[in-house]
Amino acid sequence: MPQVFHRSTNTFSRVSIFGALFFIAAATYGLALINRSAYVTQAGVARAQPIQFSHRHHAGELGIDCRYCHTSVERTASAGVPPTQTCMNCHAQIWVDSPVLEPVRASYRTDTSIRWTRVHDLPDYVYFDHSIHVQKGVGCATCHGRVDQMNLTWQESSLQMEWCLDCHRNPERYVRPRAEVFDMAWEPPANQLDLGRELMRTYKIQRLTDCYTCHR
Amino acid sequence: MSTPVLEARRDSRPPVIAPGHTFETVTDRISRVVLRRGTPRGWIVGFALSFCLMMVLFYSVAALLFRGIGIWGINQPVEWGFDIVNFVWWIGIGHAGTLISAILLLLKQEWRTSINRFAEAMTLFAVACAGLYPVLHLGRPWLAYWLFPYPNTMGMWPQFRSPLIWDVFAVSTYLTVSLMFWFVGLIPDLATLRDRSPSRIGRGVYGILAMGWRGSAKHWHRYETAYLLLAGLSTPLVVSVHTIVSFDFAVSVVPGWHATIFPPYFVAGAIYSGFAMVMTLAIPIRKFYNLEDFLTMRHLDNMARVMLATGLIVAYGYMMETFMAWYGGNPYESFMILNRFGGPYAPQYWLLITCNVVIPQVLWFRRVRASIPALFVVSLIVNLGMWLERYIIIVVSLHRDFLPSSWGMYSGSIYDWSMFVGSIGLFLSLLFLFIRYLPMISIFEMRTLVPGAEVKEETP
Fold first, then answer.
1. Could you tell me if A4 lies within 8 Å of chain B, comparing CB atoms?
2. Quick one: A91 and A146 in the same domain?
3. pLDDT tens, A49-79?
4. Does residue A132 form part of some domain?
5. DSSP string over A117-174
6. CA distance B303 to B17
7. Quick one: angle between helices B346-353 and B372-391, nearest 10?
8. Contact A13 B152 (CB under 8 A)
9. What is the ipTM of this complex?
């Protein structure tokens, strides 16, 4: 009786059996990487905006405090996007003829809001409150990165749940004194863990990892 | 152990293989079912009917995916309905396979040989049907992979303290090991089919599946080792899977679920229903394919005995539930039992007792065990009874909660029924395909039962 298969089938079948294991492992690893990549999370991708507003210029070079525009960050869930009136506080006096700022003036004249492109968009099933994070000593830059060095703003962090939990499980690694929250240039000291534990006691920071902390 | 009396008794029972068979006739008779030219009309009709039922399942699943689990009858307070009833029922049926293939192999029960292949296939298909239900029950089945511990972006593991996650591991392990066991057992027979197949495609497909089996002494040696190892691996699974399924209930605090007797009682019930299903399927198949020589009355008699024994354990379980309801002194427990006896679901409960406890007692009689129609009817009744058992356990306990304000009633909707009937269609379709394309009885193991296979010492 003739052979059904060629001799090379032996090698082929051995390779495919062992190769399958590596293929599955590599595919799992690859999928995990893709899920965390900027392609999925959009982290680090600067968004186009109707006006080329530069945080680098305003917050960095001019040194305007975050709270000048994001007024409600210490009191409410939302940090607040400033109304056109806030822009006009200065721009009624300076750069009044700049063509770049024409949409701002148009917004002011017609009393319609500027339609900014949202950069940080948490899913609707997540409850997030800026004020409590500010009160407990989480710096702006801890989550948003060095906004004072961004021309067009991008999302610094992945905003994935493992990223949230990283801090909620180990707040001592990230918290800072309340006075330093709005200091963009603050760097954690060498004894951050000791400082963090001390702050956790002082500010009564808990490790909040119950589901209902964020999913209410 | 071979005292003359025992020998005589053993000989008085029907043989495990009809006399007059040789290696050639065994191989020919079993492989002919697969390799014959043309498909028998009965098969086509049976498969067509099963296929239609399977389409009912697919339609119901599609409706479920589009419209959500609101199309089922479940609601507060009965949040588990047909989905979980059917899950437990199917997974229980899947227990006969490993019991027959692993435990009876290790116990050297040679009568298992002609039913093991078939029972293992039945196990796989039943587990496939069972696996469908908890996934659909999730509500968002496309996220079912969340059940597995994989490197997810949520930074979380599944809740390892929940029996529901133990279930995921128990069932998937069971499916994997059963599949391996079944496939390894098939390899020598696949090689036989490869060598006997008249068509090129047949030789190619069976050849790939046979993985280069040549039947050398080395092959057989490794094969025997692997098969025994797999049998050893499967043995704990026979008890572990349904134990863990019972934990889904027993770990809760619901009256009627929170009972330490649940694991053994569930395992016995699973084997009970598994053997009933093997019998339900084996009786028509041996008739249709003229396999009475291989699936003899001895097999049916033995299966009936296993059913009788496990049925008595199940009956003991019912007794203990009732006893503990009184002895435990917990008012909720005793209310639950009285509610089973005389509540809104009392007809179903007494039908369950009739099906699972009363009627199977006829198996004590040798004449019943020798009557094929009687065995067939009893096996169907036990299948029904075991389904009712899960229905009673789940629905009666849930519909009367601790708080009378949250009491309610449950009945399956049209989609509950169509999905149940449809899953039977899926099961039968897979079974028909198996019978048509794979040897349903282990050819090489049957050959070892032929008198010529007995190795005798040469007299000097």
1. yes
2. no
3. 999 999 999 999 999 999 999 999 999 999 9
4. yes
5. PPS----TT----HHHHHHTT--HHHHH--GGG-SS--B-S---HHHHHHHHH-GGGT
6. 16
7. 140
8. no
9. 0.77
